[in-house]
Amino acid sequence: MSEPIPDLPRCAWAQTHPLNAEYHDEEWGVPVYDSRALWEKLILDGFQAGLSWLTILKKRDAFRDAFEEFDPERIARYDEHDVERLMGNAGIIRSRSKIEATIGNAQAYLAMRDNGEDFSEFLWGMVGGRPIQRDFERDGPVPTQTPLSVDISKALKKRGFKFVGPVIVYAWMQAVGMVNDHAETCHRRKPVAAMG
Fold this sequence. Notes:
Elements (H helix, E strand, L loop, with lengths): L17 H9 L8 H14 L4 H14 L5 H4 L4 H8 L8 H19 L4 H7 L6 E2 L2 H4 L7 H12 L7 H10 L3 E2 L16
Parallel strand pairs: 1-2
Helix pairs in contact: 2-3, 2-6, 2-10, 9-10
């Protein structure tokens, strides 16, 4: 990531730390269509539960190292030895339940693939294939969850995913550009194009 440009109008949360500003300016809300990248972001949003996103950003490189670049094929084969290895890694969030959920989520991701369900196509299909442009005047303030995030959460849980409650899913939808929740005054508010 590059240094954020000072004094650009940003969403309020992005003004609290330079790392937040960089992430906001370069990644947050940009549509992600790559299945593995979508899965990685979902895992990181699960690790963020109860913590600040800044904590995750500071540890993201350590997470990528610890989880072998979030390769679902490798993670799906992790055993108790790997769980203990990860529990001893001070560079990541050492939550046994979140680590075990990541392993199970890798297995669920691969099961979807093996059943002919592409992760990206499945999830983007649930939002009509294009980013949802929220209208603050019509829709009101940014929610923590929506009926759609509840539906996506249920669909993921049905497929064996964990740490994918509707609040986590909505934060993830914002991060991967499924919904545009940039503040009206934010320099990134301009609607983004749908998948070509």
